[in-house]
Amino acid sequence: MTGIRLTMAALAATALTLTAAPAMAAEAGITDEVTMTLGKDGTLHVVEKITGASGGLKRTFITRTRYDDNNDRLYQISNVKGGTFADGVLTVTGGTVEYDVKGAVTPSGNVEELRWFAVNGWNQQVAKATVKVSGPGQVQNLSCFAGELTSAIGCTSASMDHTATQADFEQENIAPGNALTVVVGYPKGSSSGVPILEKRFSLASAFTLDLVTGGALAALLVLLLGGFGLLYWTRGRDARVADHEKDSVSPVQNGHFAPPDGVRPGQIGTLVDEQADVVDVTATIVDLAVRGYLRIDEQPRQTYDAPDWLLVRLPNAPVNALLPYERALYDAIFDGRDAVLLSQLSGSFTSHLGAVRDALYADVVEQGWFARRPDTERTRWTTIGVVLIGVGLVATVALAWFTTYGLLGLALIIAGGALAVGGQYMPAKTAKGSAALAHTMGFREYLFSGELGDVPEQHRVELFSRYLPYAVIFDGVEHWSRVVASVTGNGHQSDNLYWYHGPAEWDLSKFAGSMRTFTTTTSGAISASRQFRTL
Q: Confidence class of residue 381 from pLDDT cuts 50, 70 and 90?
């Protein structure tokens, strides 16, 4: 029995040895002896002696923590020895590691607090860590925490020597990735160390409303109000002159048509809305026909055919008497041919419309109605606005990312948008242009008043036909087409006009519908070129 007991005891001892070995192996790890010295300039110099490492030993430093709602706290690691350091990761190549830390000191009341993660981020277990801390003054208080970074669990031991010049800390079994954080308080002013803060980006802080940004927004408001005041002054001047001159209209002289100030339909269209657009060209084509430079022949068609017209060049027309924009349009229509279908113009007009438009803008400047071309004026202000918007976008991103003055960038964007939109209204007429506009508006009222006076019958077709291109500009084609269709030279109905011919079985009773369709189709053919759309 005694032999059996001895055998069983031996087996039990062997089993205990075998089960204890893995546990001891699991607790194996490195030993880290840390010595930290805080200098007068607030720089913490750290020396670590490491033993028991197996394989590649690496440490990931904590270089950024949350400080408050608006800022992160940075820890700057420098002067690393005993390994290679990149992107916050230290790869150990020797048994001793040295480095400097800035940003680990925080003044607080009557003390300044040194807080550093003396042991943290190792990729291997730390079986035992000891930390000795000395600084530029006597220790006022001390504490330590072990485990996760946010752990409130104290370390194994924390003490100071009898002179209160050195603090000692100890902790066992620190798991990979966990930390031993030491905190030591020194008298205020012992060092010049301060936290290194970096503002954390947030929309709320990036667009803070304070004295600077509020003042900038107020200045922007003053600028916008000033711009509106300038706009009111320039546009109001047009209205004031127009109101003063509006009764000076005499479109009929000696029974013949005499437009106020000798203004042609295309000129009126550009003068009124400050843009050379499709309706101005359409009205000019009708005007050239009425004045004897071309004839409009409506083409016969079946029920479902698209309407079309033949524009015929009239011989012996005094083309040299045409204004530059009229000559440019006349040449663009015929382009070396004697007749052309309206349906063919949408393809052949493309290369000529730019010249017609430029000539119209140049004409209103030559007439003295504008100091500068309206399109150039709009383009200049719109370009400035767009550039300012671009600068504002870049400034907003930069200011919001690096500062709290993001509202200043938004102010630039708003100002740029106001300039880009307001630029469309910046062309201002001269006093002469405003007076011409007033006479034009008076002419418009005269046309639609129904009081046409006593016009001799022999002049009615010519006179009412001369009114028609202006009616195109004033959107009164339907009304004036009916007026023209109602009379002929002898007061009786006719099949055609001297400048407009219809197909067989067509008479002037259909002229109003034909003219309405012609103007609509012509504007469509012109705008189809994509170079002359109404803005």
A: confident
Q: Which residues lie closer than 8 Å to 70 by C-beta, 6 or more apart?
A: 199, 200, 202, 205
Q: CB under 8 Å to 331, separation ≥6 — which residues?
A: 352
pLDDT at 187: 94
% of residues, the chain, pLDDT over 90? 37
Q: Which residue has the higher pLDDT, 274 or 238?
A: 274
Rounded to whole angstroms, the Cα distance separating 231 from 24 reads 88
Burial (CB < 10 A; 0-12, 13-18, 19+), residue 357, is buried
Partner residues linked to 123 by β-bridges: none
Please state, in angstroms and rounded to a whole number, the distance separating the CA atoms of residues 179 and 149.
Answer: 6
Residue 402: per-residue pLDDT? 80
Collapsed DSSP state (helix, strand, coil) of residue 304: coil
DSSP per-residue codes, 478-503? HHHHHHHHT--TTSS--S--SSEE--
Written as one letter, the residue type at 253 is Q
Using one digit for the tens of pLDDT, what is the confidence trace for 145-156? 999 888 889 999
- Report helix angle 278-290 to 511-527, nearest 10: 130
Q: How many residues does the chain have?
A: 535
Percentages helix, strand, coil for the chain (3-state, rounded to 5) are 45, 25, 30
Mean residue pLDDT of the chain comes to 82
C-alpha distances in Å from residue 83, one per residue of 13, 79, 80, 96, 265: 45, 11, 7, 9, 87
User: Which of 481, 495, 487, 480 has the alpha carbon at shortest distance from 461?
Assistant: 487
Mean pLDDT of 139-149: 92
Closest CA to 349 of 126, 530, 124: 530
DSSP 375: H
Match domain 30-202 to its CATH number in 1.25.40, 2.60.40, 1.10.357, 1.10.1060.
Answer: 2.60.40
Is the entire prediction scored with pTM above 0.85?
A: no
The residue extents of the domains of the chain are 30-202, 263-371+428-529
Q: 284 pLDDT exceeds 80?
A: yes
Crossing angle for the helix pair 265-273 and 431-449, to the nearest 10 degrees: 110
Measured CA to CA, the distance from residue 84 to residue 406 in angstroms comes to: 40
Task: Tell me the CA distances in angstroms from 72 to 124, 198, 338, 400, 450, one per residue in order.
Answer: 28, 5, 81, 16, 79
Question: Residue 327 is which amino acid?
Answer: R
